[in-house]
Amino acid sequence: MARDDSSRRWFLFDYGNVISTAPTPSDWEALTEATGVPDLAAPTSGYWQHRHAFDAGAFTSGEYWSLVCARPTGPVRSAWLDVLDGNQWSHLNLETLDVLEDLDARGERLALLSNMPAPMVSQFASAPWAHLFRHRFFSSSLRLVKPSTAVFDHVLTELAVEPGLVTFIDDSPANIAAARALGIDARLFGPTSDLSRLLAPAAPGTGLQDAAQAPGPAVSRGPE
């Protein structure tokens, strides 16, 4: 008899600062050296000021890096900057990976939802962690960016699931609030969070402990 998946839970994960850790100072230094632009990590830098549009697929790589550098940036240099940018967001949170692999081994349904520019999506496409997810949703492909309600509506439609059967993990309070407004079981992840405990109420009978601790403050923004 075929199994009815309509009542099964999905675990929906953010990427940046959940699966990955934040860039290190040396990462930012490498990007600063390549661009010639100081203080790229600062919230007021061109890197962040134009990031939303880049994540949304509104800019090509060349257009984005030209804005960041405040001068025309050719395709070869833009491609190299994309590599450096991807590298600095490729440091993985090993504790998160352990939990993801455990969920996958138990046959749980995993999906990814990230605000991520197209070059980074391509760079990570063959990463082993990416294949843990049955569905991967990226802002640059959807032309929809969290915390837009539309991006969550799209995910729910594609997963063919009711909001209450989705447990969403993200480090952004705005993203968590938007998801909760739709009835999604959203959990805020912070640098001191124990992911197993955070997921425990959504996975009864799995041996995970109940989550009583509050996550720490969100770290620097990135692929969300």
What's the CATH H-level superfamily name of the largest domain? Answer: HAD superfamily/HAD-like
Report the mean per-residue pLDDT as an integer: 90
Spatial order of the strands in the main sheet? 3-2-1-4-5
Report the C-alpha radius of gyration, rounded. Answer: 18 Å
Q: Low-confidence spans: pLDDT under 50, at least 5 residues?
A: 202-220
Strand content: 5-15%
Number of strands: 5
CATH architecture of the largest domain: 3-Layer(aba) Sandwich
> How is the quaternary structure best described?
single chain
Largest sheet: 5 strands, parallel
State the helicity in percent bands: 40-55%
> Number of DSSP helices?
11
H/E order of the elements?
A: EHHHHHHEHEHHEHEH
CATH top level of the largest domain?
Alpha Beta
The CATH topology of the largest domain corresponds to: Rossmann fold
Q: What's the end-to-end separation, in Å?
A: 39 Å
Protein name: HAD family phosphatase
Pfam families: Hydrolase
Region (Disordered): 205-224
Organism: Arthrobacter burdickii
Task: Describe this structure as you would to a colleague.
Helices cover 41% and strands 10% of the residues. It has a five-stranded parallel beta sheet with strand order 3-2-1-4-5, sandwiched between helices. The protein has 224 residues and is an alpha/beta fold. The protein has two domains: 10-21 and 91-202, Rossmann fold (3-Layer(aba) Sandwich), CATH 3.40.50.1000; 25-88, no CATH class. It contains eleven helices and five strands, in the order βααααααβαβααβαβα. α10 links the parallel β4 and β5.
